[in-house]
Amino acid sequence: MIGRLNHVAIAVPDLESATAVYRDTLGAAVSEPLPLPEHGVITVFVELPNAKVELITPLGENSPIAGFLSRHPQGGTHHLCYEVDDILVARDRLAAAGARVLGDGDPRIGAHGKPVLFLHPKDFCGTLIEIEQA
Q: Model-level pTM greater than 0.90?
């Protein structure tokens, strides 16, 4: 069911500074900032040959990333995103196996314009998991 690793998301308190680290220090290609109000974040993608790193920072006071950064003020790994062939089939299979799908269970459109869902970290070794339709 699980496909390739799409990205590792890192929550950062200062998106401009974090972008500069990846672009200027590490020499990576980075995207322009993309506000995603429906997810409460601004995101930048660092392009790698085999996956991406997503830098995320809060957008608005109710951002779920704001809570994460209050517990981890310097930032840190927020989630892993895996591709799946069919997000609804994956959701139903995961739920049948006892995994908790966050939110209302309906996929939302993510930063890549594709349906995404998040899975409870307590069900996945303490790691928040995002699944994205390939």
A: yes
Among residues 32, 38, 83, 130, the one annotated as catalytic is: 130
Tell the CATH superfamily of the 2-133 domain. 2,3-Dihydroxybiphenyl 1,2-Dioxygenase, domain 1 (3.10.180.10)
Looking at residue 105, its pLDDT comes to 95
Distances (CA, A) of 32 to 37, 102, 130: 16, 28, 22
- Do 65 and 15 touch, CB atoms closer than 8 A? no
Token code pair at residue 91:
């959701």
Please confirm, yes or no, whether 47 is among the known catalytic residues: no
What is the rounded average pLDDT for all residues in the chain?
Answer: 97
* Res 92 pLDDT > 90: yes
pLDDT value of residue 114 = 97
Q: What backbone torsions phi and psi does residue 11 show, to the nearest 5 degrees?
A: -80, 135
Q: How far is CA 105 from CA 7, 25, 42, in A?
A: 21, 39, 23
Domain spans in the chain, listed from the N-terminal domain onward: 2-133
